[in-house]
Write a structure and sequence with these properties.
Largest sheet: 8 strands, mixed
CATH class of the largest domain: Alpha Beta
Radius of gyration: 24 Å
Mean pLDDT: 97
CATH topology of the largest domain: Aminopeptidase
Distance between the termini: 16 Å
């Protein structure tokens, strides 16, 4: 096996500088123009064949090995979040209200290092590696946009891998496990309509806020009372908008939220029970409702065989005791769109900061341990080459 780790360690300062530059200049989904430009320039300098503007702002690079073989795709997400940074870091965001609060700055830097590692070792492995620098992972459909724009075409990947730096995991630990890892995500919108009126005469109205409060309380009972304890599901209401004046009974309330599931049957139960509850509560008060669902991403399910390939690659880089498993996580990840089209494995690398309590992802105080960037690059390169070499030898 190629010594990717020592080669990646030689790029440690580059990785740190790349990551900090991206962190200073975060860009929201489908706006990653500067980020994509830096990536494209780096790949061109390495002699990599690239396509830009994939899925609006994505970049695809193709690296060919020394011999014919299969194709593997490595995905790196680039977008930031609409969060005002509160880290106080010397390289904090210079874009007010936008922050890399999920580690995608690190992922983009990792992808640039992986490109360099693979170009330098291309004479040693077969097949092709497709690098996808993806826009708009944070709930905006970036993966699907790149797929619709040909990211998985010419050549079509036979396997796909992705890595996420994880602030809640001790530095150096690697989560590699088969089966469900990240949840499917749905976004729902509820509109409740009553009859407005004077705040001093509530008996002449149908109070939409009263209806909404009762409906919300009932909706929160679904998971605990309708979903088997052996299954995992989340229903969360994230917005509640109503009323315009203190002395007016609101005629309409708008709520929105998310469902997270791993099982299609569980999702169907949630949807049916939501509709039944809203129907019952509104009928009881003489109100009306509208319920709309938007499917965001399917669940991430790691292919068993690709998981074994990922483990084999990791065993050459970390101790066996540092390869761990976790309870499936209810966050969503649109890498699922790619893995539904090519068998794959999605892994976590622990990157909890060494000198402070780890902040959760999407926190305005989020940070990562930059010392893990070389290991992340080595893991991604090793998974790709392990897959390509196995397919050739087998």
């Amino acid at each position: 096996m190629i010594d990717f780790l020592n080669q990646a360690k030689s790029l440690a300062e580059n990785l740190r500088q790349w990551r900090r530059d991206f962190h200073r200049h975060p860009e929201l989904g489908f706006q990653e123009v500067r980020t994509a430009g830096i990536v494209a320039e780096h790949l061109r300098a390495l002699g990599v064949e690239i396509t830009t503007g994939v899925g609006r702002t994505g970049v695809v690079g193709l690296i060919e090995g020394a011999r014919p073989g299969r194709t593997v795709l490595l995905r790196f997400d680039m977008d930031a979040l609409p969060i005002h940074e509160e880290t106080g870091l010397p390289f904090a965001s210079q874009n007010p209200g936008v922050m890399h609060a999920c580690g995608h700055d690190g992922h983009t830097a990792i992808g640039m290092a992986v490109a360099q590692l693979l170009v330098e070792t291309a004479h040693q492995w077969p097949g092709k590696v497709k690098l996808l620098f993806q826009p708009a992972e944070e709930g905006l459909g970036g993966a699907l946009a790149t797929i619709e724009d040909g990211a998985l075409d010419d050549p079509t990947p036979d396997a796909a891998f992705a890595l996420h730096l994880w602030s809640q995991l001790p530095a150096g630990q690697v989560v590699i496990q088969p089966g469900p890892l990240l949840a499917a995500a749905d976004h729902f919108e509820i509109t409740l309509r009553g009859r407005g009126g004077h705040g001093a005469q509530p008996h002449t109205t149908i109070d939409a806020i009263l209806v909404a409060v009762q409906a919300a309380n009932a909706l929160y009972s679904i998971v605990g009372r309708n979903i088997p304890p052996s299954e995992m599901a989340v229903l969360s209401i994230g917005t509640f908008h109503a009323g315009k004046a203190f002395n007016v009974i609101a005629e309409e309330v708008a709520l929105s939220g998310t469902l997270r599931t791993f099982n299609a049957d569980v999702r169907e139960i949630l949807i049916q029970r939501m509709d039944a509850i809203l129907s019952g509560v509104t009928q009881a008060h003489g109100a009306d409702y509208q319920l709309i669902f938007h499917e965001h991403t399917p669940a991430v399910h790691n292919d068993p065989h690709m998981t074994e390939i990922a483990k084999k690659a990791a065993r050459g880089l970390v101790r066996e005791s540092d390869i761990v498993q976790t309870t499936p996580i209810m966050a969503a990840e649109d890498m699922a769109e790619i893995m539904n089209r090519a068998p794959g494995c999605y892994i976590f690398l622990g990157a909890a900061p060494p000198q402070s309590a780890p902040e959760p992802h999407h926190s305005p105080r989020f940070d990562i341990d930059e010392s893990q960037l070389p290991l992340a690059a080595a893991l991604m390169a090793a998974m790709a080459v392990t897959f390509l070499e196995e397919k050739t030898s087998g």
